[in-house]
Amino acid sequence: MNQNTLRTQLEARVLFIDMNSFFASCEQQTNYWLRGRPIAVCVYTGKYGCVIAPSIEAKQRGIKLGVRLNEAMKICPDLVPLETNPDKYRTFHARIMKVLKRYSEEVIPRSIDEAVMDLSSYKNIYPDVVEVAKKIKQDIREEVGDYLKCSIGIAPNAFLAKLASDIQKPDGLTIITPENIDSILKKLELTDLPGIAKGMKERLNKAGIYTPYDLRHSTPEKLKAACKSIVGQHWYHRLHFQEVDMRSTEEYKNMSAMRMVSKEQRRDIQNLSDTLMMLCLTLEKRLMKKQLFCKRVHCIIRYENMPPFEDSFYTEQPIQDGMELFHILQNRQLAFQQKHKTMQHIINTNTISIGVVIQDFINEDLVQLNIFDNSHIKSNKARKTVYSIKNKYGTQTIKRASEMNDDDDLADDVIGFGSVKDVNNGEYG
Hints:
Layout: E1 7-8, E2 14-19, H1 22-30, E3 39-42, E4 51-54, H2 56-60, H3 69-75, E5 80-83, H4 86-101, E6 107-111, E7 114-118, H5 129-144, E8 150-155, H6 158-167, E9 173-175, H7 181-185, H8 198-206, H9 212-216, H10 220-227, H11 231-239, E10 242-243, E11 255-260, H12 269-290, E12 292-303, E13 306-319, H13 322-339, E14 351-363, H14 374-393
Parallel strand pairs: 3-5, 8-9
Antiparallel strand pairs: 1-10, 2-7, 2-8, 3-4, 6-7, 11-14, 12-13, 12-14
Helix pairs in contact: 4-5, 10-11, 12-13
């Protein structure tokens, strides 16, 4: 699949496969007694554990992604909490990818629970893509697990295919074509579109764009002005059946890194600060691998017996460097302490979890380097060199001073929804 060309196709031959409640479904697949029951996969199952994957049954009972376990138990007293099992989910992912790649060589995993498949070059082999989608569903049930369900969207490009996959869940099958796109868009909200959150919605509203239908029928110039960047033109291309660089579909989901903090770890403030640093470096690795920069950052720190600290902001310049992100977060936390005249550090001995989420991705080749000074350009080149060496000779061959840490437990095995790195054995592979 060409990663760099902009092409237009009107025929719906791109499939987006989204595994429904993937982590929870994997647990139910391997344990018969969990089937039909509301379960919640958590990073850890303590009182303040966070639900990262509710089952279909749990969602039907009102359990949402990100809710604390103690709150979830109030909503659904018979909820079954389970700790995450990354190896199990990687195994299921590999088996699903094996099924998909039997139909096409042009399969790109977008995260551990999502993949996009382009059948544009297989018209003679698969004249009916809807039948292919149905067969994929059947094969996954028969060969991977009978309790695993997926929603498949079909459209002329990856973005619209992703949108189609979100319309009917679980176990849905939706097709978007030039003939029905307007009728579908009229039924949706702006925030139903992958990549449009509250902030982008407000920008579009100010420009007189209130619905996805309005978005589709706006000019590229108007959208560029509304978004204050070339991203606006990308929206125009996506909604007019053009394929905007396949890598850009990474923006469909945010990237996140989070760690729960044990009682032993929270005794040492420096250890907690190191944890935040390692989270930022983890996100840097993922950005480097996907050749992306980010513009929006959200940091959340949860405590024992007190409300969480949350900080959301846009960076002045697109960012990829983990240490730069770390220092920005540190400075903002210090500024908050000074503004509110508190002596207590934001990261303190009451901390039970630290999380960093990044959004609003920009492809590396779209970042205009002239906005950077020479130090930024040199830093970007140096970072690429380090990762090139890691790729060729192994992850332990070379490390920046900032990566050195005596606490190996900071890199415990975790898994998240927003990164393809989670399905690989190595961070750089």
